[in-house]
Amino acid sequence: MFSNKIKMILLLVLVALLISACGGTEEAATPEVFKVAVVMPSAINDLAFSQSMYDALLGIQTEMGAENFEFVYSESMFVVDDAAAAIRDYASQGYNLIIAHGSQYGSSLQEIAPDFPETSFAWGTTVDTFGLPNVFAYEARSEEGGYVMGVMAAMLSESGIIGVVGPIETGDAKLYVDGFAAGVAATNDAAQVNSNWIGSFSDVALASEAAQTHIGAGADVMTGTAQMVVGAVGVAEENGVLWFGTQSSQTSLAPSIVVANQVYRWEVVLNEMIELIKGGTYGGQSFLITLENGGLVIDYNPAFTLPAEVTEAAGAAIDGIIDGSIKVTP
Amino acid sequence: MIDQLFTEAVLVGILASGIRLATPYLYASIGETLSQRSGVLNLGVEGQMLLGAFTAFYITFTTGNLWLGVLAAMFVGLLMGLAMAFVTINLQAEQGISGIGFYLFGLGMSDLLFQKMLGTVATVSGFRPIHIPWLSDLPIIGKILFSQNILVYGAYLLVAVTWFVLNKTTLGLKIKAVGESPQAADSLGVSVSRIRYLTVSVGGMLSGLAGASLSIALLNVFQQNMTSGLGFIAVALVYFGGWRPFAVMGGALLFSMVNSLQLWVQVLNIPIPSDFAVMMPYVLTIIALVITVQRVRPPSALTKPFERGH
Amino acid sequence: MTEKKTLPSGHSQILQMEMHGITKRFPGVVANFKVDFDVRAGEVHALLGENGAGKSTLMKVLYGMYQPDEGQIKLDGTPVTIHSPVDSIKQGIGMIHQHFMLVESLTVAENVALGMPSTRGPLTDLKKVSARIYELAEIYGLRVDPDAYVWQLAVGQQQRVEIIKALYRGAALLILDEPTAVLTPQEVDEFFVTMRQMVTDGHALIFISHKLHEVLDISNRVSVLRDGEMIGTIPTQGATKTQLAEMMVGRPLGEIKIRQQSKTSQTRLVLQDVCSQSDRGTPALKNVSFEVCAGEILGVAGVSGNGQKELAEVITGMRPVTSGKIILDTQDVTGKSPKVLMGRSLSYIPEERMRDGMIKEFTVAENLILREHDQMPFSRRGFLDLKAISEHSEGLIQDYNVKTPSLETTVKSLSGGNIQKLVLAREISRRPHTLIAAQPTRGLDIGATEYVHHRLLEQREAGTATLLISEDLDEIMALSDRIAVIFEGEIMGVVPRDQATAEQIGLLMAGVAETAAK
């Protein structure tokens, strides 16, 4: 009787783990194929951070052909220990490049990478390779796109109050929000940027209430970063408040109010890494995606009619950042 | 800067938002209250909510019928509740562990279904706020109390109904007796397992409804793991409220309003680090719990399986 | 057969209940074998037997909790099948369980109403229930407040609630399972008044007890069960304690003789104003002071839950003292650990013998050396000397007459009596100066109880100072030289045995202090 109970519970837990862990199932095949494995903190369709990497890998595969490029992924690895186990598994299965897509995986990578000197690892977003010869680092200069968005937001806001919804005040999110605030300040120094850090990457309900709060405080333009902002986008749409997205395009969520998105195109740096690996360099360098190298793209919502002077100002800001006349310091 | 908090707009915002945010907590923790009152600790609430949230969203997304979505979410929650009842009542499995099992199941299953059936984050047109003639137009009160959607009202009605059932009906008497002394109830011909089946399945159903209130009434979107620990807070609120529906409601409102308050603290640029601000609801709830814990006593048979003749 | 009357409760009588040839088997055990038993309206039929004799099984069959393998139950001559307690309640059979079946957090009225159909459909009708409780209370002299919460009631009052519950359900036949076990002597007297009243009114009562004097006092007939079989049914008139005890045990019993106390002035254990807290942090012991001398037994009487557990734990070092002093053999040992105390020849027979006295997963031999396992001769340089252990254990098992298949048998598979013998063997063989015996015979049958008493008296002769904590007043009266009564953590008085009466001790147990002026 007792052991039956235990079996039943174990079975349940196993089924649950199996389901929650089942990600990419494509199997690695012939040796000449370039094989990539990626571990991501959220789902590949989060309309944010994880999706930006997934889309990039899909793009590379289309370009190189499925016979030459394969990739597998483990998504929703919000438990760092699970992610570490996945990274080690992929490494022992002989993948060419293993991407740890999340700054929280850094210390795991630092431990694992030296054990597999013939395998290349990449992690982001950061610039730190730990000085290891087989670790690449990558980061987005998201403050650049943030600045451009800020310029547009300042021009579009009538109330002069702009709301930001973020997860935790650190890393990529902080870079973006700082850049955004700088862009607003440079355009209209009377405009006010209110930030709300909700302390979670997944609490959609709280993100939605944060948006309500911004609107209550008079905001008529908002932006936000990380996957829980989908809750905020909904509130923005309901109240006719304009929205700027980042990491991936959020236009499909609310076509009537999304003005533009800063989209990450990791394929720019991934292609460089792949070339280096093929040439025998397994790491030791850090990469940035920027407006200049095309890794950051301002993706306008075609359904949203933007006044010409706003488009012009945005273009000027992009040009200024690329030619160095505008400095956005993180 | 602190005085900015005491303007009408902010106070109305905090109260209205608190009442709205409390809705999913209420459905889940009232369901949990019923289940615990009969002696079963259900830690799978979060998983039941996630599956409920997904089901409601998916059905509404594909059929456009909100009520069908609500019913489907309740049905899925009910099935989860029945499974939990079977494991804890018939198999007499350890309740805490089984609950965690069901949480993981709900988390994984909702994510899997989301990936396979929807593929991307999408939105639906959810329940709209109801405009009640005259009442909704009242100054202040109208905005706080009478401009919410039907599922918000339903949650508060549920609190009253549950209080009534527990305190005024023979069924309530049986539920309390089974949770306090299943032996006594059994000796008087009350079927312990029938009552527990009832409360655990109704609890599951309400958790499913809690999920629906998120995905098709408050947020109108489904995102993986969107409940984000809310189901566990709901279980904590049951302890906080000392297993009494209205006190549980008080806890849910306190937690939600403080959460809403901290959002305003940040938006108004009051110089408190955001990390501290987000801690506020938890810290306050813990303080309130410490103050009140002296007088609360859990149902005596909570987490104890019942076997006749012992 | 006489005409059926209506009982004062408004329900109809059961004139005669007969059980014929009841056999009930459990895996490996025959709990009841061809048992005949009957009870008639207007009588108390006592059912006697040792633990495990099959009394409870027989009554559970009657109450529908078990189904008999063979045999028949007839009510007023008509065969009936009772599938569950619901059925038996419908038939007019009620049962007062030894452990009350009350929900403490509910009110009296709610407890009475539980499981009954309401006149208001799904809503409770507590007002009507309360009115009916007042009515029944009036008829049977059972005063209770329907609105009181059960946890607020004293044990005696809770028992009244149980009886009212049964009467409310129309019980004409009541099974009373050891109803006096938890009562003070005064409460027992009150309870007997109620029982007599019910009998006069035409109820049929089955009274289960192992207290022979109570059985002789209240019943009309006595039946004795032994090893699942009915030994006989005799009229109470003319029966004697010795006769009933021998029917129960199946052999003549020795008399307990207390010799004159060997006067000694040597004080072994002294408590001075000892205070302590319960697990909940409430005061459990309040300024407890007494002393125990070599060669005497100090009995501590009291109703369950008045600080007895804490008292034993404080003396044995398992519970901290908040104030006061404990002196053992002239040395202050307040706050010392159990290990240090045991080194001072203090032995302890704990109340929860399966939890605190033995490790039930361990073997007989392992349990017997638990205290001295790390000392010579059982342990040499950290290794157990298995030969010495088995010789020592073998000797104890013979001396103490423990029935065990082998030394390697785990303790959990032994009977309660044999486990207690093992505890005694371990604790007494150390030749302690002081012995704390907490509820040493609880749950034991007459034979084993007799054995324990015999051993305790033997220790008294040998000069051990014994503190006997017991809720069984008969035991206290039979063994003690002096009797201390504990009530709500306070010692209400210490009375020499030869001056003590059951009434006086009973009043002290109920917290009535004025008569204790001695």
Structure notes:
The complex is a heterotrimer of chains A (330), B (310) and C (518). Chain A is 42% helix and 20% strand. The termini of chain A are far apart. Chain A folds into two domains: 34-141 and 266-289, Response regulator (Rossmann fold, 3-Layer(aba) Sandwich), CATH 3.40.50; 142-263 and 296-323, Response regulator (Rossmann fold), CATH 3.40.50.2300. With 330 residues, chain A is α/β, with parallel strands linked by helices. In chain A, helix 5 runs parallel beside helix 6 (171-187). Chain B has a single domain (2-121, 150-292), classed as ABC transporter involved in vitamin B12 uptake, BtuC. Chain B is built from twelve helices and no strands. The model of chain B has no long low-confidence stretch (mean pLDDT 90). In chain B, helix 1 packs across helix 10 (230-240), helix 10 (230-240) packs across helix 11 (245-267) and helix 11 runs antiparallel to helix 12. Chain C has two domains: 16-249, P-loop containing nucleotide triphosphate hydrolases (Rossmann fold), CATH 3.40.50.300; 267-345 and 431-517, Rossmann fold (3-Layer(aba) Sandwich), CATH 3.40.50. Chain C is 32% helix and 25% strand. Chain C is built from 17 helices and 22 strands. At the A-B interface, helix 1, strand 7, helix 7 and helix 8 of A face helix 1, helix 4, helix 11 and helix 12 of B.
| Rg value of chain C | 25 Å
Low-confidence stretches of chain B: none
> What is the terminal-to-terminal distance of chain C?
57 Å
Structural class of chain B: mainly alpha
What is the CATH top level name of the largest domain in chain C? Alpha Beta
Global Rg of chain B? 20 Å
Count every beta strand of chain B, where a strand is a DSSP E run of 2 or more residues: 0
CATH topology of chain B: ABC transporter involved in vitamin B12 uptake, BtuC
Summed over residues and divided by their number, the pLDDT of chain C gives a mean of 86
> How confident is the prediction overall: mean pLDDT of chain B?
90
- Class from secondary-structure proportions of chain C: alpha/beta
Oligomer: heterotrimer
Question: Largest sheet of chain C, order of strands side by side?
Answer: 6-7-8-3-9-10
> How many discrete domains of chain C?
2
| CATH architect. name of chain B | Orthogonal Bundle
Range of strand content of chain B: under 5%
Percent helix among the residues of chain B?
Answer: over 70%
Most extensive interface, chain pair and sizes:
A-B, 55 and 59 residues
